[in-house]
Design goal:
The protein is an alpha/beta fold and 298 residues long. It has twelve helices and nine strands.
C-alpha cells in the first residue's frame, strides 16, 4: 500500500486489512515522503501489529512506491491496496482460494462499491469476470478492466513482466495488465471486495495527455491482433468539471442505485458549492422527491 499524505483516511484503510478473515500476510506500507501525519499514524499501527512493515523514504511518486513494495515483498502473492480505500473482510480469503484453484490466473480483481469522499455508498462497479472480456477492454484502453487496488497478483508474474514502468506513472495499471497478458489469465470475482473512495482530485484532470499515453500503451497489442490504431477522443466536459459537478454526478449515481441518503447529501453539497447553478437545484428537488417517495409507508 503506497501512502502519500493520506492521514485523513489512513486508519480505516489499515484497519480493513487488519480485519481480513485470512490473516497470514505481511502488510508492506510504503510512505512516499508524506508531509502530514501519515507516518506517525503508520508507526502507531506498526507498534501494535508485527505484520506491518513500513518503508519510509523521499517522495518518488506512485510507480516508484509500488516497485519498492514489490522489491520488499516475500510472499507468493501480492495484493494491492490504496491508502484512502477499504477492503471487505473476506477479500484476501476469497481471492486466495480462487488463485490456488486456478494456477494459470496471474491477476484477480473484484467488484467495488464506489463511495463519495465521506465513505457514503454511490454504486457498485463490477468489471467483466472473464479473461477474454478483460482483454477486449484493455485493447480499447480501459485500465479499469480490473480495479488496480483490488487485485491479487502472483508475485512471480509481476517480476517476470518487469514490474511497473516509470514512464507510465498515471497509467501504470493499464500498462501492467497488458504486459501480464503474456504470462497468464486475468479475471475478476463478481463479489464486492473493495470500497473505492471517489475524490474530485482523484479523477483524471489531464485526460487528454493520458489518452495519448493509453493509445501508445495499447498500440503493440492492437497491432498483434490486427486492429487499427486507437485514436482517443478527448472529452472537454470532463476536463472542465468542478467539484460541484462531481457532487451532482455522485448524487445521481447514488439515487439510481437506491442510496437515497447518499444522494441527498451530495446534492446538498452541489447546491452549497454552486448555489447559482440551476441544474444543482433541479438535482436537489429530484432527489428530494425520490427520497420522500422511498420513505413513505406502503
Amino acid at each position: 500500500m503506497p501512502v502519500y499524505n493520506a492521514a485523513r483516511y489512513l486508519a480505516p484503510a489499515v484497519e480493513s486489512i487488519q480485519a481480513q478473515s485470512f490473516g497470514d500476510f505481511e502488510f508492506i506500507i510504503i510512505d512516499d515522503g508524506s508531509t502530514d501525519r501519515s507516518l506517525e499514524i503508520l508507526n502507531r499501527f506498526a507498534k501494535e501489529d508485527a505484520r506491518i512493515k513500513i518503508v519510509s523514504r523521499p517522495n518518488t511518486g506512485l510507480v516508484g512506491a509500488l516497485n519498492d513494495g514489490l522489491a520488499v515483498a516475500q510472499g507468493e502473492y501480492l495484493a494491492r491496496m490504496d491508502a484512502d480505500d477499504c477492503s471487505t473482510p473476506g477479500r484476501l480469503e476469497q481471492q486466495l482460494a480462487r488463485m490456488e484453484s486456478e494456477p494459470d490466473c496471474v491477476a484477480l480483481g473484484g467488484a467495488a462499491m464506489f463511495t463519495d469522499p465521506e465513505g457514503r455508498p454511490l454504486k457498485i462497479y463490477a468489471p467483466h469476470p472473464d479473461h477474454s472480456s478483460i482483454e477486449n477492454e484493455l485493447v480499447a484502453g480501459n485500465g479499469g478492466a480490473l480495479i488496480h487496488a483490488s487485485v491479487l497478483f502472483r508475485r512471480e508474474a509481476l517480476i517476470r513482466c518487469g514490474g511497473y514502468r516509470e514512464n507510465y506513472n498515471y497509467l501504470e495499471d493499464l500498462d501492467l495488465f497488458i504486459r501480464l497478458l503474456d504470462f497468464g489469465r486475468l479475471a475478476n470475482l463478481p463479489d464486492v471486495l473493495y470500497h473505492y473512495r471517489q475524490h474530485p482530485l482523484s479523477i483524471n484532470h489531464v485526460q487528454g495527455n493520458r489518452d495519448l499515453q493509453a493509445a501508445e500503451i495499447v498500440a503493440p497489442l492492437r497491432q498483434r491482433k490486427g486492429l487499427p490504431r486507437w485514436i482517443p477522443k478527448p472529452d472537454p466536459a470532463s476536463q472542465s468539471a468542478s467539484v460541484a459537478d462531481f457532487r451532482r454526478k455522485w448524487a445521481f449515481d447514488a439515487a439510481e442505485n437506491g442510496h437515497y441518503d447518499s444522494a441527498w447529501a451530495n446534492a446538498l453539497q452541489a447546491v452549497r458549492l454552486a448555489p447559482f447553478q440551476k441544474i444543482n437545484w433541479s438535482c436537489l428537488r429530484y432527489i428530494y422527491r425520490l427520497r420522500g417517495a422511498q420513505k413513505k409507508p406502503a
